[in-house]
Predict the 3D structure of the following.
Amino acid sequence: MTALNISSMGLAGTVPPEVGNLSFLVSLDMGSNYFHGNLPHELSGLRRLKFISLSSNNFTGAIPMWFGHFPELQVLALYDNDFTGLIPSSISNLSKLKHLDFRGNSLRGKIPEQIGNLQSLKFLNLEINQLTGSIPLSIFNISTMEKVGFTCNNLSGTLPVDLCRHLPNLRKIALSFNQIHGQIPSSLSQCSQLERHTHDGVYILPIYHFSQTGSFHERSAILGTSRNLG
């Protein structure tokens, strides 16, 4: 057995440390249960994992630094829990990571600049947290990125003028309900894969509705309304 899937089974309690003895696991899915508490350090020994989902539980505490010690990891889903503290910079060690989903927690502080080292990343969702500061420019240099979400944080700053220059595969970007200001980058037209919707024959770019003031607010009706990343 290389996969353990106990998702949606109504399980409760804390994660037994003995799970860390299953060193042969490639996939671990414990999502949509009622697990709570901190994650046991013993899980750090599961170095063969390619897929981890602990989503939709009641886990608390900081996201452990040892999540950056899984050399084969491609999917890390910790969404809809109550993790607190900072996003660990060790995540940047996951060179094969394609899918990172931390939405719906209570994470704070700045987004680590080192996330830009994840040059295989296609999906990044940090929505509905308490993150502050600017979005690292390094994230806009991940050429594999297809979907990215920062909605419902306290992020500030501006977007890079050449936002689409290094994102040829970008399909969706969600930025609403932050404190981002300035002009909407004209380079959005260069995102050839960005999904477009039509309304009365007019193309609408779905960068999702902005709650900001100034130029973002003025153009939000033209550029789309909030939707899930999906």
Confidence is low (pLDDT under 50) at residues 201-228.
